[in-house]
Each structure stands twice: as structure tokens, then as C-alpha cells.
Amino acid sequence: MIFGFPLLSVVIWLPILFGVAVLATGDDRRAALARKLALLGSVLGFLVALPLYTQFDPSVSSMQFVEKRLWIERFNVHYYLGVDGISLWLILLNCFTTPLVVLAGWRVIEERVAQYMGAFLIMSGFINGAFSALDAVLFYVFWEALLIPMFIIIGVWGGPNRVYAAVKFFLYTLLGSLLMLVAFIYLYLKSGGSFSILDYHRLPLPLTVQILIFIAFLVAFAVKVPMWPVHTWLPDAHVEAPTGGSVVLAAILLKLGGYGFLRFSLPIAPDASQVLAELMIALSLIAIVYIGFVALVQADMKKLIAYSSVSHMGFVTLGFFLFNAYGVEGAIVQMISHGFVSGALFLCVGVLYDRIHSRLIADYGGVVNTMPVFAALFMLFAMANAGLPGTSGFVGEFLVIMGAIQVNFWYAFFAAMTLILGAAYTLWMYKRVVFGAVANAKVAALKDISAREGLVLGLVAAAVLVLGVYPLPFTEAMHASVNELLAHVARGKL
């Protein structure tokens, strides 16, 4: 709290209340009101979250803005919230993304507008709740609740195979979460009746138990990241989801898996984390290299970017299990950068799809001749995806490679492969779509981006450049929390 003001509660519940208000506008006769109300709610949601950064003390590793109220007395469940340097930027990333998604769907969504906009606002609040919950039951409620709006977004406004993709997304993530719930119940009993996540960090556990708990968490978080080989739901979900759904899925929902490793797996099972580190590093390197090759052969732009996400998120899990500051901080920066870059690439594909209604690379060519402003912005995001220095895509990957080379040269070597592969598949796509002669009459008839589209892409472009050129404000906020986490893992519990 700030001077007794429940800031985190406002950050969580304000977008949810606006989402309910948007839903209450009813049918599409009041679509204009629904859009304006959704934009107001999403912008206010971002503005009320800004004090989390301006009032944050980067020298403190403990939780800040803490709120704690008894919720379910019988089971000692609390409404317990707080943020540290690890969760701070993820909440701000979510609050930054939500207005962009609302603007991106401003003209594109013409049916069930209120339901579409309301679903994103409600999901935004649930995501903030998951990133700030310090009670296991509260975290689980938010974690599961946010699946519902995304399931609806894919299933109602998605492509021809939207029902299949929505059900696959829901089942993968739901089934993975059940083992996490079992782990929470065990920890609750072992701790003498506490659901406080911070209490679990101090709980002495034998190695065998730690390994079992680590595996239970791994199933839930690996699906969410997603790690190889449980990544197959992601391309289907991305291809079928509307543009806004793809942006939130890539920019925010995947980060919940990475966040879970830092908040649960490493501090609750530190000894198991070290024992299983080589397995986690191997899975991460497979994702980085193998999925990079898979991305190279994709003919669908959305599917290519989806596989690119799996490869880039492999950097995140690799960084976590290097157990040094470069690796962990680089992984967190990579999560933030991936939120900007991958979200922007999906927005760019959405701009083209809204005009031509095709995602196939072969249906394009020579777009720069008719959409020069769009082509310039698209180029920036393509270069950031390839890890060009000066963009956000370079910072996180560079830090993780620096962390990897301190542990093992070959880890760094294979991790650096993604810089080559990322450049290959991203620039191959960009060249085929943007450069060359005008491919057909549809491309010849294209009009450049509107002021609304330019605002959305321009804001993300600014974020990509700011993080790429001056990452210090992003990294200094996480130093104390990351160092405390690494010290805790190094001490272990045995």
C-alpha cells in the first residue's frame, strides 16, 4: 500500500470492473460506447499502475505495496498481494499491452464488440492478480480464471479451426495446472496450514520431495512458457486467435510460465533446481535451436512468429537455470522484450490480414511500394526479433549468453545459434513479404497504415528502442530481488 491506499487492488480490479461495465453495454447497437469505455478502462489501468514503478524502492529485495486480508478463515486463505523487482515489470508490460489490444481491434471487430473488449479487460485484471498474488490459493484462482476469457476470445473471434485451437489451449493449460494444485495442497499441510507462498520459500524439504514438487510445477509452467516438447498448442492457438488474442498470448500469457519458475520452482525447491538444472538447460537449448529450424520452414506468417516465440522463450528458461545474475536478469529482460517484439510482429501481421485476409507469405510481395511507413516499422520489429544491437531483442539475449559462457562455453555457443536462426527466418519472411516488385493486384491496392494503427505500432516501437538503448531503469529495479533469489538457491535447504 501507499499511505494506506490499496494500489495493487486497484491495478487488479479497475480493469475488471471496466470490463464488466463494457459487457453491460449490451449488443452491437452500442458498440461505439463499448469501444470508448474499453479504451478508457485500459488507459486508466495503465496510469494507475505507473506508481508501482515511480514509488518502487529498487534497493529492497522484499515485497512492496503489500496488502493482506483474511479471505477464507477455515483454511487460512488470505487475500495477500505484493510485488518485487521480478513481478514489477511484468505487471507494467500487461497494463501497457491492454490499451494497444483495444485500439488494434477498434475497427476490425464488428460483431459482439462489447464481449470482445470486455474479455480483454477482465483478463488483464486477472493477469495482474496472478503476477501479484502471494497466497497460493489466490494465485491459483487468478491463474485458472484468466484461461476463461482467452478461451472465449479464441473460440468466438478466431479462425476456421478456432474451436479445436481453443479446446487444445484450455486442456493443455488446465491439465498442467492440476499437478501444481496438488503441490500447493502438500505444501499447505507440510507448513502447518499456511498458503503463503513466502512461507514455502523457508520450508525445509528433503531432496526427494523437492524433486517431486519441482516436477509438479514444471508440468504447469513448461506448458505455459511453452517449453519443448509441450509447445504444440501454441502455433494452433496463435494461428486461429484474432490479432488481439495473439498479442496478449505472446506478450503476456507465456510470461506467466517464466514467472512461475522464479516465484515457485527455484525458491521452493532450490536443491532440486540445481540437481535438475542440466535437464532444464537441455530442454531450453533444444527449444532455441530445433524450434528455430522449424520456424524456417513455415509458410504462414503467424505460425512462423509462434515458433519464433517458443525459440526465444527458450532463452528465458535457459537464463533461469544458469544461477547467475547475468542469466536471470537477462531472462527477465528477454521476457519484457519478447512481449514488445512478438506482440508487435503479430500486430503487423494483423494489419496485413485486415486488408488482404491472408497470412500466407506467398500471397505477398512488394508491400514496401504501397505501405512504406508500415514497412519501416515492420523492419524495426523484424530486426529486434533477430537481436539487432540497439533494440530490445539484443539486450536480454546478450545477457543470457554472458551468463551461459560463465557456466559452460557450449551452452553459450548453442544459445548464440538463435541469433543466426532468428535472423534467417525473420529476414526471410520480411524479404518475401515486403521487398521486390508488387506481387498482385491485392498488394497494389493496399493503403498505408492509419493514424490509429500508426499510434499502436509507434508506441511499441518506442518501447523496443528505449529498452534496447537504455535498459538500466529496467535492470536496476530487479537487481536486489534477483540477488536475493540467487543467494537463497545457493544456500539451499539441505
What report would you give on this structure?
The protein has 494 residues and is mainly alpha-helical. It is 73% helix and 3% strand. The chain contains 23 helices and two strands. Strands 1-2 form a two-stranded antiparallel sheet. β1 (64-72) and β2 (77-83) form a beta hairpin. The relative contact order is 0.10.
List the topology elements.
Blueprint lengths: L6 H18 L6 H19 L1 H4 L9 E9 L4 E7 L4 H17 L8 H20 L3 H10 L1 H11 L4 H29 L6 H5 L5 H18 L8 H8 L2 H26 L1 H6 L1 H20 L4 H20 L4 H32 L15 H14 L6 H16 L1 H26 L6 H4 L6 H19 L2 H5 L2 H13 L3
Antiparallel strand pairs: 1-2
Helix pairs in contact: 1-2, 1-5, 2-4, 2-5, 4-5, 4-12, 4-16, 5-6, 5-7, 5-12, 6-8, 7-8, 8-10, 8-11, 10-12, 11-15, 12-15, 12-16, 14-15, 14-19, 15-16, 15-18, 15-19, 16-17, 16-18, 16-21, 17-19, 17-21, 18-19, 18-21
Q: What letter string, H or E per element, gives the SSE order?
A: HHHEEHHHHHHHHHHHHHHHHHHHH
Tell me the overall shape.
globular
- Number of helices in the DSSP assignment: 23
Rg from Cα? 22 Å
Order of strands across the biggest sheet? 1-2
Proportion of β residues?
Answer: under 5%
Mean pLDDT: 86
Number of β-strand runs: 2
Low-confidence stretches: none
Which percent range fits the helix content?
over 70%
Structural class computed from helices and strand pairing: mainly alpha
The main β sheet shows up as:
2 strands, antiparallel
N→C terminal distance = 35 Å
